[in-house]
């Protein structure tokens, strides 16, 4: 167990050596276009810990790309969803086929809800990034990065 939440306060302690492959963050930009980069592995998809990254209110997603460097082993029909508070409602879905094939690809999913690239509102509130895994993903294989492009220029 690399991360532990023994106090029950949503504070996680890390024990042992840290391995790369579970980094998440919004890359900085000078303009209105931003990129959310989510690097993950089979092991990180099987953990409950997610770094606390927030998508700002008003973010309008423009596209999704997936770079798979090492193929995942996913059960038939298994998916991974990354998104806001409810990833199945507001988020993007990665299919079994997309995760099991090495290379860079545009996703079949255009996003769901306020994460849909055809959304007329974008995100209506700040959302903490979450994930939902359906099916089984082998923890010992798979490395990928999901790149989510969005525009945001909210006045406070």
Description:
The structure is a single chain. By secondary structure, this protein is mostly beta strands. The protein has one domain (21-151). Helix content is 6%, strand content 38%. The protein has 2 helices and 12 strands, in the order E-E-E-E-H-E-E-E-E-H-E-E-E-E. It has helices spanning 42-45, 96-100; strands at 3-4, 13-14, 24-27, 33-41, 54-55, 60-70, 79-83, 91-94, 103-106, 127-128, 130-134, 143-151. Strands 3-4-12-6-9 form a 5-stranded antiparallel β-sheet. It has a 3-stranded antiparallel β-sheet with strand order 8-7-11. A two-stranded antiparallel sheet has the order 1-2. Strand 1 (3-4) and strand 2 form a beta hairpin. The longest helix is centred in the middle third of the chain and has 5 residues, at 96-100. The N and C termini lie far apart (41 Å). The mean pLDDT is 87.
Question: Which keywords apply here?
Answer:
single chain, 156 residues, mainly beta, five-stranded antiparallel β-sheet, three-stranded antiparallel β-sheet, globular
